[in-house]
Amino acid sequence: MAHRIEAGVERQPSLQIEIDGVAVSVHPGETVAAALLLAGREHCYTTREGEPRSLFCNMGSCFECLVAISVAGEEREPRWRRACMTPVSEGMRVRTGKCLQETL
Amino acid sequence: MRPVDLAIVGAGPAGMAAALTAVAHGLRVVVIDEQQQAGGQILRQPPAAIRVRNWLRDRVYRRQQQLLQRAQQDSRIEWCWQTTVLGFLDRDPHDPTSQRLWLHGPEGTRELAARSVLVAAGCHDLAVPFPGWNLPGVMATGGLQAMVKSQQLVPGKRFVLAGSHPLQLIVADQIHRGGGEVAAVLFAQPLGAMLGVRKRPLLMLRHLSKLLHIGGVMWRLWRAGIPVRFGSTVVAAEGERQLAAVRVARLRDGVFEPQQTREEIACDHLGVCYSFLVASELPRQAGAAVSWSAERGGWIVDVDGWQRSSVAGLYAAGETTGVAGADVAREEGELAALAVLLDQGVLDAARAEKMAAPVRRRLASLREFAAVLAQISLPPWRVFEQLLTDSTTLCKCQGISVGQFGDLLQEHSSIATANSAKLRSRTGMGLCQGRYCGYFVTRLLARHGDISEAEVGPFSARSPVKPVPIADILAREREQG
Amino acid sequence: MHSCDVAIIGGGLIGCAAAFYLTRLGKRVIVLESDALNGGASGRNAGSLHFQLEYRLLEYQEQLQDHIAHLVPFTRRAIEQWRGLETLLGEDLELVMHGGIMVAETADQLQRLQQKYEFETRHGMELELLSRSELRARAPYLDERVQGALYCADEGHCNPRYLTLAYARAAQRLGAVFHTGTRVRSVQRLRHEWALETVASVAGDAEHGGRADYRCDAILNAAGAWAADVGRLAGVHLPIFPVGLTMNVTEEAPPLVGHLVQHVGRRLSMKQVREGNLLIGGGWSARLPELTGTGSAAARPLYRSVCGNLATAAEVVPALRELHLLRTWTGVTGVTADQLPLLGEVPQLPRYFVAAGGSGFTFGPTYAELISQLIAAGETAYPIAPFSPARFSHINMFMREAGH
Asked: What is the distance between the terminal CA atoms of chain B, rounded to a whole angstrom?
């Protein structure tokens, strides 16, 4: 399981997001990818063939860490976003493991 | 819309150095980057909300850190964060000498006109396909490192690093210092190949600080009991929907040992790093000429002695012109800025030459060192060939295996170029736009047809170079509408 | 020296399909392609099978009355041909003929649909005029603003990345020879045959190095948007003009759009392919790449076209807004002055044939089959006289001596 480095690191008070219906405490500045690693939910999306895809490049190039994200206050359907490029925000809801060709 | 003087794509060492030089001579400069802060991947900073004492204070980062401080403190540079350059748009007929960039930021997409554009978009890990590489837990080593450096998070419990690039040592050290367990660091090449650097004692002496840094890292790894092995690599990742173990084979003359004797190492995360691939899709989409270099990152942008690409007004610096590291990138960025100043008439030829001379001198030595490093860092093709088994996924976006790709080549003897392979097989048509599979598609086609990589050619780069929500395109359109 | 019965210039859909039909008729065929097979419009169009008269043709309804009357039965022939294509070629071509709708948003557009319906059914097309409520039931993905549509049950799409290569492969099995990376440099009429000289281009053919010579009884110019350039090598003007078109493709999406969707009053063509991507086009222009090749040189999208095309599409199918745009690209197609194909023997040049232009994907297989019959047997199963290049003979009146 992933862990935060604590020595010499100051983080701001935690905020809450939801990953697959489970509340997770994260800190401002952390990415959704970090939250997924901490929550032990690395399987981001599922290919048509049923294979998992997950965080790979962690720099926005490979598009394998797509997860369905709803941002609190945005009144629209969840959107596929790169977990590694998306900072967490209070009330954010993340769905993992869905198929890209599935209705969100 | 009045064009800015210089738009710089990428806020890494090349971008920062170019921006500083250009604003110092009065140009209006906009730097665009997908991250939230300057530094690029080499100095990928923790976000403002996470404060880290003594962040990357190793001596080897000192010059880059100084550059970062100067750039961040220079109020003349306009920064454009969390913004992706989607491509070069058609030129404005009323201002045909300017470039028009298509940007995607938090507020949607927009245009940016610039008299000159410098692409310093860096590189990403060369991800060599092998059986099981699509299991969660298998990552690019650069990706692991960014998690530690920038998020201050050790992304797993027990790690194996496999590949051929010396970066592996640094990342192993960073993971270990962060409290992660490193089960092994594996280099595919024999130690002898790495020690080839001995043959260039003078060159190595000039770059002693880097060698000392690696030496220090090696010492810490040794003291921590972390095995660093040469001549072996991971040949399969195993686990049920999450990495549980890797299968390791020793190599003799680049050939894997037989199946029976291969060792298994338990781990939950594997970092893979065989080398790096340049991000040249933007210049290619703009029509810039490129050349193939297997060692320096695939399709690298052709530039002249001033970092000018073949497209007027378009410059390239740093890894985009061939992977050579952050120090080379910084110098090339400065050189590119001098070229822009020269071409825009801010500097006259004599002055520009004079200012470029010391930069070029430094570059010569740095490039020589980078070339040696590149040479020892990339294993021969036969190593990759053995990893690319028929069942290995070649294109992860579209789920196409090496075997399926090979079958198509057998069925359609007319397929010779990367583009024709893309059209028939869908490799390179997915979300990553062929960034990862393109290198192997090119090399496989070259071998299949017994032709050169230049004849195979790259995938045509298309805009948007990264997918963009249609709503974000239309939102802006309506606003301007 | 290579010798054959027919040298086909151009390895696109028509060239490769003609290679198939001609070899089946017992001809020895060599296809000369300057780049790779299927590299031009044949592989870059969106693969629509649009059998209703297109919006662009309706604009010229008055002038084209006679030709259009000829086109409708021709279309019915094409529909039959498409239905048997996967069996004929023995390959999955992702061919679907699930129906297409041409939508209308305004009273004026509805009236045009009505006129179009009457005109086309009079000539034997089977179409259905759908009211707003019928349309809602059949195509719930459409926006409220759509008032009605004309439905053609045979329309659909086929994967353009597969079709040409499937023809090439089938032709190759029958003995056709393909020389890619081979650019025709000169065309000469000898006493009883044609002589061609080629040079290696792009992916050089190591087997015969740089230059090569060919002798043949007949030439088929199937060079699409480049047919005029190729024609000039033989000393004729073929009035076909390259047009750059913008295409857009979204990420793979859940099943959403179950028809080929076109618009009677706006530039829109849209469909969802098997993998789930939506292909969006409909005649939005693009800057022409250099016509010397099909390379990536001028791949810069026209921003107005991309935005205009996507805005139109999202107004008709609102769910599109939430999808990602994956790529835009330019396809270069050849358009003739009267929008009809150039199909037949060139009057000034004995045994020199042309097949290009005029909805080249939907009708490509049919053009190829008919021109092959003409080349091999001197007659066709369906009259193609209205498409003959003879209709433009006047522009070649002064070219006789300049030619061969």
From this structure: 15
Question: In sequence order, what are the beta bridge partners of A11?
Answer: B50
Q: Which residues of B touch C287 (CB under 8 A)?
A: 90
How close is the nearest chain C Cα to the Cα of A8, in Å?
40
Range 40-79 of A in CB contact (< 8 A) with B = 42-44, 47-49, 51-64, 66, 76, 79
Distance between CA atoms of residues A2 and C281, nearest Å: 46
Share of chain B above pLDDT 90, in %: 85
pLDDT at C289 over 80: no
Query: Mind listing the pLDDT tens digit for each residue in C152-168?
Result: 999 999 999 999 999 99
The ipTM is 0.97
CB contact under 8 A, C180 and B414: yes
Helix (H, G, I), strand (E, B) or coil at B242: coil
Rounded to whole angstroms, the Cα distance separating C6 from C372 reads: 10
Report H helices in A1-99.
32-38
DSSP state of B170: H
Compute CA C193 distance to the chain's CA centroid, rounded to the nearest angstrom: 29
The first and second tokens of residue A33, run together, are: 């990818």
pLDDT of B428-480, one tens digit each? 999 999 999 999 999 999 999 999 999 999 999 999 999 999 999 998 655 44
Interchain CB contacts (distance < 8 Å): B and C: 131
